[in-house]
Design brief:
binds copper (II) ion; Immunoglobulin-like; six-stranded mixed β-sheet; 6 helices; binds CU-O-CU linkage
């Protein structure tokens, strides 16, 4: 195993991801940020300098469990202080498991400002993937807004509330089109965009050779959009989800929620005289954003010889049967560790949209999460009394809540939502979806856990019936291991994890505005067993460091 060193500077810069110039957050002058490529067992070292002039920054390594290094998880207010302007913080962590991952800002809504990139971990030397392929294509998917994140954040916390709306464009590897389409010939009423050139918004071209198998690594770091990906005329074989191998299955298209990653195999077995569209469209919300298109370029055809066929159509946004059929097929590959047969604790989390004093919030068991000034990893490790709010979040919301109706009591409060988790216990979490404030509205929420993979034991429609029924019907045989799991409208999702990684871990909806509106909880896991926390993580600036004795907390 090797150490892989990166020296990065985060800064604001002008960029035109969809051909309209805006300001975004880039790394070393690039957008998306540089791709990290490492082998399982390597240590990744990122010296991160904050070159934003007036705000802090942190970077989270999404999907990396940070075993033994909770201070490198990159969550502001949770695992570390935000890095001040001009400061450098060094992230050092082991990438223990091969897979398709990504990284992103985890302070305010900086992810939505473009602070993200790919993180790909290959198998260790001498190891082999359990499937064969000839080449790789990387697709980091995101959505893009023309309003700045500051305007978005002010709107979300204003009275009256101003929703951010749908994104202006979808991006593949940071490139998209606004107000025009590459496939205008097939999309009546749209203007044709120019295909070539080396502009920042030039479409992505994936060169391939005929009769080969490619591994597409697909990850979504969208702010809001749930996506669907298809490649014209080609089948996709799903082999990996969130850095875990799955029992392979073949589909025409895949759904991908924010926080998810997949590997799919594609065989270039179609007529080689043509190129094909890679199409990414919106699911789960009434789409107001045009699909993103890229070109699968069968060499030696010209890269910009646009496919003659129409791009594959995205399934209807509200065809949840299609989404569920896909999601339910994801099962672990033989050889994946099975979950413990029983759990020590079940935490049931009701997801509701509520009002607080004229503001609109997302609440978990009627408590909307707010983050503290002092990162929990430091304050809990030091046993500071001020660390936790007095109100302890509940393990259950009780049976009898009518998930089909807007909340009977729409009022909520804010809290830390900190759950204290005992070392090495097995914890089940049931995420229960419900109706939002408006009648007949229930949204999709992809929940992401830091510090762990979890087994997805099951999904269901309506209210979770607990020991009366659903708890006995969970899949303990071949549940997939993941770090992100979706809850469907009006449904529930049950997961299980083993609390074997001391630290303070966020568990939250990966939709950026939802997290901003409080949709998350914190798992404070065996914090007394956390090793020495580097001072730089939980104190800010040289004076803070100097005021404290020793290098560790
Ligand atoms: Cu990718 Cu806490 O998120
Ligand atoms: Cu959400």
């Amino acid at each position: 195993a090797k150490a892989r060193h990166f020296k990065w500077e985060v800064s604001n810069m002008f960029w035109s991801p969809d051909c309209e110039e805006k300001v975004l957050i880039g790394i070393n002058g690039q957008f998306p940020g540089p791709t990290i490529r490492a082998k399982a067992g390597d240590t990744v070292v990122v010296e991160l300098k904050n070159g934003l002039h007036t705000e802090g920054v942190v970077i989270h390594w999404h999907g990396i469990r940070q075993i033994g290094t909770p201070w490198a998880d990159g969550t502001a207010s949770i695992s570390q202080c935000a890095i001040n302007p001009e400061e450098t913080f060094t992230y050092r962590f082991v990438v223990d498991k091969p897979g398709t991952y990504f990284y992103h800002g985890h302070y305010g809504m900086q992810r939505a400002a473009g602070l993200y990139g790919s993180l790909i971990v290959d198998v260790a030397d001498g190891e082999e993937e359990p499937f064969k392929y000839d080449g790789e294509l990387n697709l980091l998917l995101s959505d893009w807004y023309h309003e700045s994140i500051y305007t978005q954040m002010v709107g979300l916390s204003s009275k009256p509330f101003r929703w951010i709306g749908e994104p202006q464009s979808l991006l593949i590897n940071g490139r998209g089109k606004f107000n025009c389409s590459l496939a205008a010939a097939h999309t009546p009423g749209t203007e044709k965009c120019t295909a070539g050139g080396n502009r920042q918004c030039a479409p992505v071209v994936f060169p391939v050779l005929s009769n080969k198998t490619y591994r597409l690594r697909v990850a979504s770091t969208t702010s809001l959009a749930s996506l669907n990906l298809a490649v014209g005329n080609h089948k996709l074989t799903v082999v990996e989800a969130d850095g875990n191998y799955v029992d392979p299955f073949v589909v025409d298209d895949i759904d991908i929620y924010s926080g998810d990653s997949y590997s799919v195999l594609l065989t270039t077995d179609q007529n080689p005289s043509s190129n094909y569209w890679v199409s990414v469209g919106v699911r789960g919300r009434q789409p107001k954003t045009a699909p993103a298109l890229a070109v699968l370029n069968y060499r030696p055809n010209g890269a910009f010889r646009l496919p003659a066929l129409a791009p594959p159509a995205t399934p209807e946004w509200n065809d949840y049967a299609h989404s569920k059929a896909f999601t339910y097929r994801i099962l672990s590959r033989a050889g994946t560790p099975p979950p413990p047969a029983t759990s020590n604790r079940r935490i049931e989390l009701l997801n509701t949209q509520n009002r607080m004093d004229g503001h609109i919030k997302w609440s978990i068991n009627n408590m909307s999460m707010v983050l503290p000034a002092t990162p929990y990893l430091g304050s809990l490790k030091m046993g500071l009394k001020s660390a936790m709010s007095a109100a302890r979040p509940a393990d259950t919301f009780g049976r009898g809540y009518d998930v089909t109706q807007p909340p009977a009591n729409p009022n909520t409060t804010v809290g830390g939502n900190v759950y204290v988790i005992e070392h090495n216990t097995t914890v089940d979490v049931v995420l229960q979806n419900a109706n939002a404030l408006a009648q007949n509205v229930s949204e999709v929420h992809p929940w992401h856990l830091h510090g762990h993979d979890f087994w997805v034991l099951g999904y269901g429609d309506g209210a979770f019936l607990g020991d009366a029924g659903d708890a006995a019907r969970l899949n303990l045989k071949n549940p997939p291991l993941r770090n992100t799991a979706v809850i469907f409208p009006y449904g529930w999702t049950a997961i299980r994890f083993v609390a074997d990684n001391p630290g303070v871990w966020a568990f939250h909806c990966h939709i950026e505005p939802h997290l901003h509106m409080g949709m998350g909880v914190i798992f404070a896991e065996a914090v007394d067993r956390v090793g020495e926390v580097p001072k730089a993580a939980v104190s800010c600036g040289a004076t803070a460091t100097a005021l404290m004795a020793g290098d560790h907390v």
